[in-house]
């Protein structure tokens, strides 16, 4: 039987670039950071993995960043479209979507914030690796 969601895991190409986005730009807090172990390679079925894992708190929602330094990997999210099958996104609530849009810069977003209904405005942007992040303002 399922419990509550524990975290959302993202493979990133460079840990420092990802932290700059999630920590410095979106305001997440790093809660722990550690090197990838042989166990991680066993779990994903890839031998010889090296890299680092960081967990971040996004106001009670946990994000796991995984940076594999070896073996080499490819970024499949960078060119994916939102309507393609298997393309993930996750949503973070924000208090002022317009302020986020202005602070992060319109070029980061797929489009301008949109009014979905009387109580919800959303906008999508991509992180440095192309992962789609939805920002939702539920006070709109």
Q: Report the CATH architecture of the largest domain.
A: Roll
Note the overall shape.
globular
CATH topology (fold) name of the largest domain: 2,3-Dihydroxybiphenyl 1,2-Dioxygenase, domain 1
**Strand neighbour order, sheet with most strands:** 1-4-3-2
Oligomer: single chain
- How helical, in percent, are the residues? 10-25%
Rg, Cα atoms, Å: 16 Å
Based on helices, strands and strand pairing, what is the structural class? alpha/beta
- Name the CATH superfamily assignment of the largest domain: 2,3-Dihydroxybiphenyl 1,2-Dioxygenase, domain 1
From the N-terminal CA to the C-terminal CA, the straight-line distance is 35 Å
User: So what's the CATH class of the largest domain?
Assistant: Alpha Beta
> What characterizes the major β-sheet?
4 strands, mixed
Mean pLDDT: 90
Low-confidence stretches: none
Strand elements, count: 8
* SSE string, helices as H and strands as E: EHEHEEEHEEE
Annotation field: number of helices? 3
Protein name: VOC family protein
InterPro entries: Glyas_Bleomycin-R_OHBP_Dase, Glyas_Fos-R_dOase_dom, MMCE/EMCE_epimerase, VOC_core
GO molecular function, one term: metal ion binding
Domain VOC: 4-138
């Amino acid at each position: 039987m399922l419990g509550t969601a524990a975290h959302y895991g993202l493979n990133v190409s460079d840990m420092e670039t990802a932290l700059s986005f999630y920590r410095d730009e979106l305001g997440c807090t790093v809660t722990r950071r550690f090197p990838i172990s042989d166990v991680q390679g066993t779990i994903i079925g890839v031998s010889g993995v090296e890299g680092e894992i960081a967990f971040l708190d996004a106001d009670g929602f946990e994000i796991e960043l995984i940076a594999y330094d070896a073996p080499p990997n490819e970024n499949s999210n960078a060119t994916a479209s939102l309507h393609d099958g298997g393309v993930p996104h996750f949503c973070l609530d924000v208090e002022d979507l317009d302020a986020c849009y202005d602070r992060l810069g319109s070029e980061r977003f797929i489009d301008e914030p949109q009014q979905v209904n009387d109580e919800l405005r959303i906008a999508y942007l991509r992180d440095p690796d192309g992962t789609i992040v939805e920002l939702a303002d539920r006070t709109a």
